[in-house]
Structures are given as structure tokens and as C-alpha cells.
Design brief:
With 214 residues, this protein is α+β, with helices and mostly antiparallel strands. Strand 5 and strand 6 (112-122) form a beta hairpin. The strands form two sheets. A seven-stranded mixed sheet has the order 4-5-6-7-8-3-9, with helices on both faces. 36% of the residues lie in helices and 24% in strands. The longest helix is centred in the C-terminal third of the chain and has 15 residues, at 138-152.
Length: 214
């Protein structure tokens, strides 16, 4: 793909049609579109919190912020031996963040950013892009707070793109492409605002909203 012609609006149109961009590596300037045969999603009423994760959430060891350090979260996600986040993708997500379509949730230990997740919102769908963790459970805590935020603000679809053992252990599952596109179509018929919280979520809120431990 000629990345010089790709705009933020084209990105949003692609997500609305169920496809997302990737690159083969950080240094590869080319992009390609992906529409997996089997799609990973988080059923928003099925997030699993283990007893150990519940203990971590309740401990207050980590503090949570939202949309306060977007670039650092994406950099954290890209800071690995192999990544699909090249400069073009990073810049497009940065532009979407500035226009209110791309968001980050940050996990801090003291003053240190130790985990986070980011993704795009359209309608009542959240398209999770990537996450990172520098401390045990930091990415799990990020997802627990994100799911609670999505449920509280009226979202209906949490797209994880692919499934991993890590995501599956938290309740993520795979569905066929056709089923995903049906869910996406319904999610785009309505609107939710991921920033529409009257107050930051507390650990108690997260436990109550998610309501499942194992």
C-alpha cells in the first residue's frame, strides 16, 4: 500500500468495514489490511478476574490514568523485538488520538508508566490495538479497568483482533468473521463516549462492574 495516501479518515472507514492495518516490522514502510477469518473479542460481560488479580486490583498498587500519555503507551507497545507498529501507523494513531478517536489507558506504579493499552472507538465499538506490561499483572489491570470503563459508558463490542493465551485466560474468545461483522454493524448504529465518566473508576467499581472472579 502507498502509505503516503493513507489518511486518518481512511483508517476510520477501514475499521468501520472490519479491517485494520499492520506492517511486517517497525522498519518496513509498507502497510497491509487484515480481516481475520476468526476474530478475537472480549465479551464485555465475561471478563474473568482471578483471585490473584482481584487482590492486585484491590491493593491499590497501581494507579490508572486515561488519555494522559498516549505516545508513551504506543511506544511501550512497540518496544519489543518484533512489532507491526511502524512510523506511519504510529503517526496515524497519534492524529486519531488528537481528534478524539484513539485513546490510551495508562497503568502507573508510583510515577513510572509500567503498562497500558490503546485503541480506536467508533459507535459503541472499541478496537483494541495493543498493550504492554513492565510489571506482573500490569496489562491485566489495564484490561480490567478498560472493560469496566467500556461497560460503564455504553460500549457493546470490544475487538481484540486476534486471540492469545493471555487474552483467553481473561475471557476473550474467537468468533467467525461473519458473526464479527454482524456485531460491528450493530455497534455502529449507536454512539458511546468512552470519556463520559462522572468520576474515575475505583478498584471497587472495577470489581463490581466486572463481577466475575475465578
Amino acid at each position: 500500500m502507498d502509505h503516503t495516501t493513507l489518511t486518518p479518515q481512511m483508517m476510520l472507514n477501514a475499521y468501520a468495514n472490519g479491517v485494520f492495518p499492520m506492517s511486517d516490522s517497525r522498519d518496513d514502510p509498507n502497510l497491509f489490511w487484515v480481516d481475520p477469518t476468526d476474530r478475537g473479542i472480549f465479551p464485555l460481560n465475561g471478563f474473568h478476574i482471578s483471585k490473584s488479580l482481584a487482590k492486585t486490583i484491590r491493593s491499590g498498587r497501581f494507579s490508572i490514568r486515561f488519555n494522559t500519555d498516549f505516545d508513551a503507551v504506543v511506544e511501550g507497545c512497540a518496544d519489543r523485538p518484533e512489532t507491526w507498529i511502524n512510523d506511519t501507523i504510529f503517526d496515524l494513531y497519534r492524529q486519531l488520538h488528537r481528534t478524539g478517536f484513539c485513546h490510551s489507558l495508562e497503568v502507573l506504579e508510583g510515577q513510572d508508566l509500567v503498562g497500558g493499552v490503546y485503541g480506536i472507538t467508533l459507535g459503541t465499538a472499541f478496537f483494541g490495538e495493543s498493550m504492554f506490561s513492565k510489571r506482573t499483572d500490569a496489562s491485566k489491570v489495564a484490561l480490567a479497568y478498560l472493560v469496566a470503563r467500556l461497560r460503564t459508558t455504553g460500549f457493546t463490542l470490544f475487538d481484540t483482533q486476534f486471540i492469545t493465551p493471555h487474552l483467553a485466560s481473561l475471557g476473550a474468545t474467537e468468533i467467525p468473521r461473519a458473526q464479527y461483522h454482524q456485531l460491528l454493524e450493530k455497534a455502529l448504529e449507536h454512539r458511546a463516549d468512552i470519556e463520559a465518566l462522572s468520576a474515575p473508576l475505583t478498584p471497587q467499581d472495577v470489581m463490581q462492574v466486572n463481577g466475575q472472579t475465578s
